[in-house]
Amino acid sequence: MTFIKLLVAVLVSYSALVCAHHHFDDPHHEVHVLKGCSDVETSQDGLTYLEHGQYACKRWSGGSTYLRCVHGVVFEEKCPQTTFFDIKQEKCDYDLNLDCINPPKIDCNKAETSQGLKWLKHGQWACSKADGTSFRRCWSGTMYDWECPKGTAFNTLRGKCQWTPEDLDCTV
Questions:
Q1: What is the domain extent for residue 97?
Q2: CA-CA distance, 169 to 172, in Å (whole number)?
Q3: Would you state the pLDDT for residue 5?
Q4: Where are the beta strands (DSSP E) in the chain?
Q5: Do 114 and 152 share a domain, yes or no?
Q6: CA 122 vs CA 47, 98, 118: distances in Å
Q7: Spatial distance between the Cα atoms of 156 and 161, rounded to a whole number of angstroms
Q8: Residues 33 and 96 in one domain
Q9: Is 71 a member of any domain?
Q10: Which of 98, 124, 129, 136 stands the most exposed, by the fewest C-beta atoms within 10 Å?
């Protein structure tokens, strides 16, 4: 019984740390720690196994609640009001970008990047331009393109646009 109490304490502490880091600027952001990453109910096809770092929309949520697997633990998170989850960008966005489908994991070979033609794995980020102002992502064998907001540059390691020029990283 002591082991179970210790495990629960570790999970609660870990979830607080991860969630505080992930949404430190939103004190009203609701996060729930669920069971492990196997047999997770998703909007796509019922029970699904999520790998570390993978997202899915919660079943019956209409995209307003998403699930995130972190080291074998599923975190359930709600999008801010009037936004819905976009799995390609791994963030909540306006309803026209609602996308809850986890596609088959197909790589993109010969993808054009700022570093020339590269083989990108499903879900991998790359800069389109060397200055990091535009970026791409391989998703189920298709490349998707976005622009960073003015004054920011993309960081492929973090998967997001950053304000500091030192954070520019277009490594593929």
A1: 29-102
A2: 9
A3: 45
A4: 31-36, 40-42, 46-48, 55-57, 65-70, 73-78, 84-86, 91-93, 108-113, 116-120, 125-127, 134-139, 142-147, 153-155, 160-162
A5: yes
A6: 21, 19, 13
A7: 9
A8: yes
A9: yes
A10: 129
Give residue 76's Cα distance to chain centre.
13
- At 90-116, the pLDDT tens digits run 889 888 777 777 666 778 888 999 999
Residue 16 covered by a domain: no
pLDDT of residue 19: 37
Q: Are 39 and 33 in contact (CB under 8 A)?
A: no
- Residue reference for tokens 């026209």: 96
The per-residue pLDDT for range 121-160, each reduced to its tens digit, is: 888 889 999 999 999 988 888 899 989 999 899 988 888 8
The residue among 58, 78, 102 that closes a domain is 102
Please indicate, yes or no, whether residues 41 and 68 belong to a single structural domain of this protein. Answer: yes
Overall number of domains in the chain: 2
